[in-house]
């Protein structure tokens, strides 16, 4: 009888469920319980206050902008890293993971130093009339920095595994470069792109450390939702913090459900194709 190297189903399943329950389910349940301790009227008053609505707008629009930018730039970066070898390739490839390893507060301080009006980039942009630090544009740049690896590292393995024979067959049939990319490569990349986009957007929604230094944190204009939650915690208003945080939690669940549905559709049509 073959002996399994890893522990059996009961032990591994028990450890897994215990970990998921302790690390994931329990904190989320505590958040929901705290938010639910408010009455419906109080809950709605907190989550629909003008300051909270403004923070949702700033957070979601900045996250959308960062995700759209990372979609194109991340795809281009993954393509270059996969299809070409050049001096410094390993350095560029390693730097993609830098936002994973770098503390977000350090990233925020570095970006603020670069993009303030007397910084290296900020001084040049200021001459063009573009202000980055302490504006929503600064928030978007911080989100771009921290969420870029999610798209690159999700798409890169799929690009590496693409069969070159598919492109060669399309070329032999007279397809142009754009037609080959749109009709052959892009459909195969779509599930990975959707996964990367959803992870990038989710990371942007919850980013805190890299943003608070460059955002300026002005209520109604550059205050993100995560900071509003932190402010309510500092005021010892735990119920209000939980209520606002629950909105982010609901948004994350809706986004993940939508992304999974889109991924399943893309996979189904890819297999059929």
Q: What keywords describe this structure?
A:
273 residues; mainly alpha
Would you give an account of this structure?
By secondary structure, this protein is an all-alpha fold. Helices cover 80% and strands 0% of the residues. The chain has 13 helices and no strands. The chain has helices spanning 9-36, 40-47, 50-83, 89-95, 98-101, 104-115, 120-127, 136-161, 164-172, 177-206, 209-215, 225-234, 238-272. The chain is globular, with a radius of gyration of 22 Å. The mean pLDDT is 87.
Q: Which stretches of 5+ consecutive residues score pLDDT under 50?
A: none
The average pLDDT value, as a whole number, equals 87
Main sheet: strands, sense, barrel = none
What overall form do the CA principal axes indicate? globular
Structural class: mainly alpha
| Count, helices | 13
Order of helices and strands: HHHHHHHHHHHHH
- What is the rounded distance between the termini? 42 Å
The percentage helix is over 70%
The total strand number stands at 0
Strand content: under 5%
Rg from Cα: 22 Å
């Amino acid at each position: 009888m073959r002996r399994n190297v890893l522990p059996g189903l009961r032990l591994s399943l028990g450890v897994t469920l215990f970990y998921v329950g302790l690390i994931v389910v329990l904190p989320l349940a505590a958040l929901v319980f705290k938010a639910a301790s408010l009455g419906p009227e109080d809950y709605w008053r907190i989550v629909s206050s003008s300051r909270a609505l403004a923070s949702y707008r700033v957070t979601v629009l900045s996250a959308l902008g960062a995700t759209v930018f990372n979609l194109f730039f991340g795809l281009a970066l993954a393509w270059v890293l996969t299809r070409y070898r050049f001096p410094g390739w390993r350095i560029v490839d390693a730097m993609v993971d830098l936002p994973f390893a770098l503390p977000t507060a350090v990233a925020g301080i570095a970006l603020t130093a670069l993009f303030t009006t007397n910084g290296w980039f900020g001084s040049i942009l200021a001459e063009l009339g573009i202000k980055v630090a302490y504006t929503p544009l600064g928030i978007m740049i911080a989100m771009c920095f921290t969420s870029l690896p999610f798209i690159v590292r999700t798409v890169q393995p799929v690009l590496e595994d693409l069969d070159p024979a598919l492109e060669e067959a399309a070329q032999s049939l007279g397809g142009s470069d754009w037609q080959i990319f749109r009709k052959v490569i892009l459909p195969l990349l779509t599930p990975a792109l959707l996964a990367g986009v959803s992870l990038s957007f989710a990371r942007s929604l919850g980013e805190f450390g890299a943003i608070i230094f460059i955002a300026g944190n002005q209520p109604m204009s550059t205050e993100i939702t995560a900071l509003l939650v932190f402010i309510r915690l500092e005021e010892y208003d735990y119920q209000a913090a939980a209520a606002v945080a629950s909105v982010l939690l609901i948004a994350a669940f809706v986004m993940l459900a939508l992304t999974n549905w889109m991924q399943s559709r893309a996979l189904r049509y890819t297999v059929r194709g």
